[in-house]
Design goal:
By secondary structure, the chain is α+β, with helices and mostly antiparallel strands. It contains eight helices and 15 strands. The longest helix has 24 residues. The chain is globular and about 55 Å long. Bound molecules: adenosine monophosphate and magnesium ion. Adenosine monophosphate binds next to helix 7.
Amino acid sequence: MGSEFKILLYTLDADSARLASRAAFDRIGRLDKVLSDYEPDSELSRLGDASGGPAVETSEDLFDLLRRSQEISDRTEGAFDITVGPVVRLWRRSRRTGKMPDADLLAAARSRVGYKKMSLEAKTRSVRLAVRGMKLDPGGIAKGHAAHEAIRVLKRRGIDRALVAADGDIVVSGAPPNDPEGWTIAVGPVASRDARPVRALKLRDAAISTSGDLERFVEIDGKRYSHIVDPRSGLGIVRRGSVTVIADDGASADALCTACFVLGPDRALPLIESTPKTAAFFALVTDSGLRLVESRRFKGYPVVRP
Ligand code: AMP
Ligand code: MG
């Protein structure tokens, strides 16, 4: 998944802490093997290789992630789309060259993107990618999902005071012993590395994800294109700043967050307000300064000094 995972947990003795964290890291490692889009031999990559052909039977881990992805795509009208791989690859190249993707290549890539071109059959756990050359990109959902799976491994071992973090994706179980209100999490804006967080809140039994344009973007003719793309237009998002989403589970927080960055606050907020137990916070960089937008439930979290 190209990122570092950190686990914090509380147990009564060091040995069970070590054993438990090892089991949680093993789970993350196994998911990484299945879901990697960098490893040509991963199950996810091989599914891409089979695009345009008949349906392929998949492992529970891969099927589960794809099912979650499709749900979020449906709910966000395709703003989140795990089939966005061909377009993301073109923009990765643009970040190296500093040039816009070639129009013909972009059109070709777009024709291979679209969650409706991926069909899932639950009974046989089989997946069909309808168009040859489709590529799945787990980057917008896998880290939150894996962090949540790690928390589940710990829970099964009776450890219910833990935090798992992978860059901008964090999942927590019960509150740490020194603070019954929950874990203190500081939130964006991530407009610059040393920008101070504008909010800090207490969280337990929840997942929180932040997406934004801090680290990965390309500037072309004065416009700054993010590594997050609109799957429908194939263009990098030009919005600046970050969005944070809180949800019940890691995959939802991660994927909804990526979708919210694509949609922007005006289109994202109605979706967030109508999704139970979900909250969002935008910290956008505009010409006239920072613009903060909070969803109704976000305002309800206990806020502490950052
Ligand atoms: P995140 O940091 O969770 O917002 O994920 C960003 C990553 O998700 C990018 O680096 C791409 O690999 C992938 N991605 C970009 N745009 C989208 C999108 N619209 N839907 C799903 N994944 C995306
Ligand atoms: Mg995400």
